[in-house]
Amino acid sequence: MPRKSVSSASGSAGTGPADAEAASPDAFGASGAARIGAAGDAPATSGARHDDDAEADIGRAALRARRVRRAQMWSLRAVLVAVWLGSWELAATHWIDPFFYSKPSLIWERLVQWFTEGTSQGSIWEQIEVTLQEAAGGFVLGAVAGIVLGILLGRARMIAEVAAPFIKAANAVPRIVLASLFVIWFGLGLSSKIATAFVLVFFAVFFNAFQGAREVDRNLVDNARILGAGRLQILTSIVVPSATSWILASLHSAFGFALIGAVVGEFTGASKGLGLLINRAQGTFDSAGIYAGMIVITVIALVAESLLTLVEKRLLKWRPQVAHADIKL
Q1: Rounded-to-integer distance, Cα 56 and Cα 89, Å
Q2: Dihedral sign from CA coordinates of 296, 299, 305, 307
Q3: Among candidates 289, 260, 279, which has minimal Cα distance to 118?
Q4: Cβ atoms 255, 182 nearer than 8 A
Q5: CA dist., res. 281 & res. 32, Å (int)
Q6: How many helices and strands, by DSSP H and E, does the chain display?
Q7: For the chain, what is the radius of gyration of the CA atoms?
Q8: How does pLDDT run across 185-242, given as a tens digit for each residue?
Q9: The whole model's pTM is what?
């Protein structure tokens, strides 16, 4: 029994090394594989990390280059403005009559007076509010009408051909002249200025919306029809998104037209507004007041342009970036 137990013990001992030998290659293989894997992954991981670091360095370098370029651009702009204003101030002080041409220091004094003491027509903020209401009203109404009619006529070829001569004739009418007619029709209130701004905005937006609806990819529309899309689905899913860039491009200049319409309407006849303020300054030979009114209108137009640019970026986030997309006028 003891021998048996020994043999069994030795057998078990014999099988132990065998098992150990059998297990050893697996264990070795596993550890070896782990070592090989670790040895193989290490260069791959370090290589990927190196690539990420390189991309991050390139991104930071590009960001620094953009910041430097932007700083240079704004510096050049500031230098140009300083040179322009300095030469104007110098010329008006020594060589030209400031009564006719004014000068930056007098314009600055007029602006300070308007914003601290008020204008001859009351608070400057009240004049700005009235002009903004007129311009915004004409801009919204003209843009909506131009977009709707432009897209509809752009997709209805027969109706567009019938309406073409009438639209061209209406576009040929000097729209600024219509301001006098609108004063007769609607009086001296906001309505006549909104109507003038509407006419100026409508055609600018209409032609872009019309062209944008015409430029839609024909194959895309045919494929949508084959897949069972209806007219409304094609209009909302293909035509309108395709024409959006055309429409937004026109809106940038359209708000400027709306401001022009409001100011021209106030020039023709009004009781408040920046146009009336400029008109009164002209009547009293206050050239500094005319320039000050122009500066206020320019600032309003630039702020509106910035807001429209933000809206455009938000609406066109889906559009792929093009080369030199950051260069805008």
Answers
A1: 49
A2: negative
A3: 289
A4: no
A5: 92
A6: 12, 0
A7: 37
A8: 998 888 999 999 999 999 999 999 999 888 888 888 888 888 888 888 888 888 888 8
A9: 0.73
